[in-house]
Amino acid sequence: MAGEIELLRALTTQLDEAESVDEMMQRLVDGGARLFQVPRCSAWLLDPTRTRLLVSARAGVPLHLQPNFEYRLGQGLLGWIAQHGQPIRTGAADEDPRFLARPGMVERMGSFLGVPLVSNRQTIGVFSAVNPEPSYFSEHHENLAVVLAAVASSRLAAARLERLAVLDEVTWTFNRRGLPLAYARAAHSLDHGRPVSVLLFDVDAYAEPFVRYERDGADELMRYVAERIRAALRAQDTLVRYAEHQFLAVLPGLDVSQATELAGRIRADVASGRVRAGEHEMSTTLSVAVTAHTPDRPWEASIVAADRALAESPGHDRIVVAL
Question: What is this structure's pTM?
């Protein structure tokens, strides 16, 4: 008990000293993993519409091959917690009727503990911990998680509002105000001599759904594309809606060859799906420019090089490499 109190006290100090919402969320999950002695913790925040949970931080290796999944309110264990504002503690998560089975799980979830993050009597997110050992979490763990969530929520509420200001209101990817965050996330790789690549996605024939189905159709199309791209990215990658018809992904640790392979998978995935706008269905393709960012040139130069490569390579559904 004394050790847990000391960990909580230290974590409270660390949260107070965090300089950004990203740092605060990461300290929360890292501290939670130590407190509960589990291999995995995650923290999620509700979007401004309060209909979707966006993953904000994760400690440990993701359970899924596509970790950047968005849970809608009421969907899965996390969505249920966000909707009802109540904890869930189960010793066999995948046997719980609220569990959402997703393809690409690397192993069974095992025991699950999740609690709402609440500020001013309103749920703003969810904190969760996972352990592969069955029936791992006790009532004491649940009470401890409630205390941890209370400590974190008051600090996260203001930080959440700051984060929402840099999110695109249609796709909930970052908007252009989030570019400095994308650059900061990649700085560690650059400082240690590791590659950083940039993908610039053009949504082909973007004007068509706008003309045929007006704004709602174009918005549905961009939401669909954003979800497909985000599902393929890693936790350390950052996705930005760079223009009305463009997305930008910053990929720390990937060289141009690896980034090109990733772009190919995303391009094929987007082209294989259909988007519903009211009573109509539509599809789209992506044109993607791949470029390497190096410490000796400004970020804007890398983005301009990618944009120029797309402009100089006419056509749709293609991948080009920019120098």
Answer: 0.67
